[in-house]
Amino acid sequence: STHEPLFGKTLLYIANIGQHEDFDAARKKAEKLGAKKVFIEDLRSEFVQEFIWPALQANAVYEDRYLLGTSIARPCIARRQVQIARSEGAQYVSHGATGKGNDQIRFELTCYALYPHVQVIAPWRIPEFYSRFRGRKDLMEYAETHGIPVPVTPRAPWSMDANLMHISYESGILENPKNHAPSDLYQMTTNPEDSPNEPDVLEIDFAKGERHFPQICSIVSELFLLWFLSGKHGVGRIDIVENRFIGMKSRGIYETPGGTILLHAHLDIETFTMDREVRKIKQGLGIKLSELIYNGFWYSPECEFVRHCIDKSQENVEGRVQLSVFKGQVYILGRESPKSLYNEELVSMDVQGDYDPSDASGFIRINAVRLREHNRLQGAAQKKH
């Protein structure tokens, strides 16, 4: 009732970012519920090019394990929502994210960054709403009573979010971190125990740190193939308790099959072609970017700066990586690159090359100075006691 002006003209927007969804049914459902206009936008190519690749170039992994499949999709989805809102003259946008999670932050920070005067309606934060619907169980009962089809059922009450990058599972019995995930939960990957007994061997080409495709129009179909090959071997499953930006810990289960392969391959070719000291700096930037993505700051000045630096670092990250996928694991087999910093003659145990071994003596002595001084100080302190 406090938002009565909204309901003069309700528009529905759905982003196709590679999830398995019946968009035709979604359109009919929206029209039945009173939407005056329905926008179903295919964002798959821009999602890969403008969001997934920059994250993979950065080797962005949140808290050492999460490849940010949901997090990186939110600015892509919200950006198009804002574009539609502006073009339609809408002053309000809405989303269904809960008041406890990260997605509300990611959606809304993008909206405010790109459409500063927009007003956001978040039903889960409206007292009249959350006093009536205390949680997902109440919503499921309401949907059943009113004949509204929803993918969540009392038998599988977890929250799922899927796209080209991954699928996530939260809520329901997963809220107890001790509970094992049901074996029928996973949708993208085969149980490694049931996966093929022979590996698949792949070659992945990179140019400037990006997965190279012969034609950009093939990007989505080739990604699906990569996802399929890795998924059938059970690659990319993780089960973690992570720190939400809002201040609480949550348990999440993620499947990121193709992304896991690309991360391993990119890490390998990057180490092969990038200067050691540049890579140390870049590693820190990757951690920073993962936090910015997770916390919803994709459209912030600091994130723009970090992405620019990472993009610069990728200029010589070029080459081919051979790898195999087998029983839930990715194994690097070999690599080659015209930009390699690996000098076979220099490093060889059989050829001296352009290197004088006696130089190492002075190098070692110089590096031992501070160790000797530390030992001297420790010895003096022990004598005093």
UniProtKB/TrEMBL annotation:
Pathway: Amino-acid biosynthesis; L-arginine biosynthesis; L-arginine from L-ornithine and carbamoyl phosphate: step 2/3; Nitrogen metabolism; urea cycle; (N(omega)-L-arginino)succinate from L-aspartate and L-citrulline: step 1/1. GO terms for molecular function: argininosuccinate synthase activity; ATP binding. One of its GO terms (cellular component) is cytoplasm. One of its GO terms (biological process) is L-arginine biosynthetic process. Its EC number is 6.3.4.5. Homotetramer. It catalyses: L-citrulline + L-aspartate + ATP = 2-(N(omega)-L-arginino)succinate + AMP + diphosphate + H(+). Residues 13-149 form the Arginosuccinate synthase-like N-terminal domain. This is Argininosuccinate synthase. InterPro entries: Arginosuc_syn_C (IPR048268), Arginosuc_syn_N (IPR048267), Arginosuc_synth (IPR001518), Arginosuc_synth_CS (IPR018223), Arginosuc_synth_type_1_subfam (IPR023434), AS_cat/multimer_dom_body (IPR024074), Rossmann-like_a/b/a_fold (IPR014729). Residues 158-372 form the Arginosuccinate synthase C-terminal domain. Keywords: Amino-acid biosynthesis, Arginine biosynthesis, ATP-binding, Ligase, Nucleotide-binding, Urea cycle. It is an enzyme of class 6 (ligase).
